[in-house]
Amino acid sequence: MTLLGDALISCALATVLGSGCFLALRYVFYAATYERLRLLLRRRGPGYEMYTPVVTEELWEGLGASVLVALGSWALASGHSAHCRLADTSACLLGWPHPAAPRALHGLFLLMLGWYGQCTVKRWAGPGRRVRVQGLDAALHHASTLALLALSYSVGLLRLGLLAHWLFTVTSPLLAASKLLHCLDVRPAKKVFFLVFAAAFFAARVLAVPLVLLRCTLYDAWLVPLDWRAAAAGNAGLLLLYCVSLFWFGRLLGILATGKLDGRPRMVLTAESRRWQKRL
């Protein structure tokens, strides 16, 4: 039994109502911080003001991701995942199709559905839509995550879904912080923090996903046996997210190889070049 009755109805209500609430909170967040951040960035120097939409959005993303990672870590550490964790995935599918799950875990899933519903549509709705603060690859990633969370909740795979979500999002707060340091051109912290983020990304999303998560979903799911349609759809979604992760990791290596971290933010350089052209 779910918190809102039927699992599919719960997913639909949590996604629609939750995304609406988060979009409203995002609007309030922008209204409260955007102008203040713009003035602070203007004082930092020419060109930094152009990064106001990016800085505002990364603060919002980092705040939301930090809350979800903290709640997921708490759920894993406190036993709400029933010993479905990094060190042991043997209980991830235990008791399916009617696994017992605490109400706190149901509530966490509904919260995540609302958050990723907002993340999926914010490119086209709410503040920042005109400057496209989110790329299509990020929107695809959020939409895939939303679909996998809804699938996990609908078929009763809450423990496995919690572990998968934690692995794919544990580095998100580090990503937001790394982007902020780059936009502000904070040296040498921006390069050090980027290296920390890249190492964490490699450990969690490049290594741990196939060694821990996919080993469970590609092998254990067929031994339960799990419904083949749920297993096929879930594994397809996880493999898609893993491919996106590999693509992003390749971009991280490209940033390191080209030395972009050693340069100044592009808009800052553009603003400074315009200023020198006026002097000449």
Written description of the protein model:
- The protein is mainly alpha-helical and 280 residues long.
- The protein has one domain.
- It has helices at residues 7-44, 52-77, 103-121, 136-155, 158-169, 172-183, 189-219, 228-258, 266-279.
- The termini are far apart.
Feature tags:
280 residues; mainly alpha; 72% helix; 0% strand; globular; disordered C terminus; transmembrane helix; sphingosine N-acyltransferase activity; Ceramide synthase 5; Lag1/Lac1-like
Helix content: over 70%
Shape: globular
What does the largest sheet look like?
A: none
Q: How many domains would you count in the coordinates? A: 1
Number of helices: 9
Q: In angstroms, what is the radius of gyration?
A: 21 Å
Mean pLDDT: 83
What structural class do helix, strand and pairing data support? mainly alpha
Distance N to C terminus = 72 Å
Low-confidence stretches: 271-280
Total strands: the figure is: 0
